Amino acid sequence: MSTLRSACVAIVILFVIALSTSGCAGPTPTPVRSYTLRPQAEPYVRAEPIEYYLYLPQQYTSERDWSLFMGLHGYGGSAHDCLNAWQPYADQAGFVLVCPSLNDPYGGWEQDVMKKSLHEVSVQVQAEVRVKPRIFVAGFSAGGHLAQRYTWAYPDEVAAVAVLSAVTYDQPEAQAKDIPFLVVLGDGDHLGGVEQIEQFAQGLQRAGFKVELRVLSGVGHTLSAEARELTLEFFKQTMSQ
Fold first, then answer.
1. DSSP of 126-137, one letter per residue?
2. In this structure, is residue 7 part of a structural domain?
3. 28 pLDDT more than 80
4. Which letter does DSSP use for residue 75 in this model?
């Protein structure tokens, strides 16, 4: 009986020691998000109609309409990639940034479904914040192809388009011919081809589009800093009008 009592006392003592030790260590820290943004301008996340980030620049106010910049990531990428690429420019140029997540749960890309979802995201954002009725679209890689498809489907929603290192190019549709295009590709891009984008740009010009074509020396299949800077300048030119 004495042995049992001693064992119980020992267990209680060990339990108290464990509690005091864990108390000294403090509470388990909350995991940090995978992106780092200023708290006063942190984007909020929406889950419908698809998941997307909406980032308001530091100087945002609801007293006027702002330009809306929609960034489209590439195949295998994410909305977070878009956020990383374009967030600094949102503060610099003063635009509202929306970054949709384009992959379906199985990693697929259904273009017809996605362009409809982009339309629904655009409508929802315009109902929530003060933005201009026509938006700027910048798409990288497969997102560059989707930017084209979205523009052909909803020409009244799009003010200008930047097609950055797209792999596929569509024939232009005449109803969108008042929309200016920036087309950018690196001469080292193994997924695209300079001849292909030249033909695309020529097709746009024949259809009456305004086109700025830029081939970047020594750049592969990547959203380079030079491509982003060209896009920002193109944005300023087209959205200030």
1. HHHS-B-SSEEE
2. no
3. no
4. T
